[in-house]
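User: Hey, my collaborator sent me this sequence without any context and asked if I could get a structure. I don't really work with proteins. Can you help?
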Amino acid sequence: MRVVVQRVSEASVTIGGAVKCSIGAGLLVLLGVGNEDGEDDIEYLVKKTAGLRIFDDDAGVMNRSVVDVGGEVIVVSQFTLMASTRKGNRPSYIEAAGHQKAIPLYEEFCSRMSAAIGRPVGTGEFGADMQVALVNDGPVTICIDSKSR
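Assistant: No problem. I've predicted the 3D structure and written it out in structure-token form, which is a compact way to encode the shape of the chain:
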């Protein structure tokens, strides 16, 4: 399982011309689910993401988490995070989990993230053509792979 975590001052997800969700300051989390992923990957990434100290404290040092600052979170499924580019120029998505496996894991990740931050998280729509807009604050972007711990 892989996440790309972006610290944002605002973000939104639009599907079919309608805004599905939007947030102010917080995190936009892009989530890729692989064939070998399970509950332990979710637990690891939720804890790591919710606890990332990437927000400034009073001294201007990145020392606070999204929980500490009362920030919001959007989680968007993105199977392309599982792409392999080892051979040629056309990415292979063979390591990305199919819908039957990925949807329940995505939904569980969102549920656990909501519990970890103490508020609902915004979501995209699994498999939909989404337009994701964000203002990356910093910019701060962190990539985490649960298999690289």
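In plain terms: The chain has a mean pLDDT of 97. You can pass these tokens on to your collaborator as they are.
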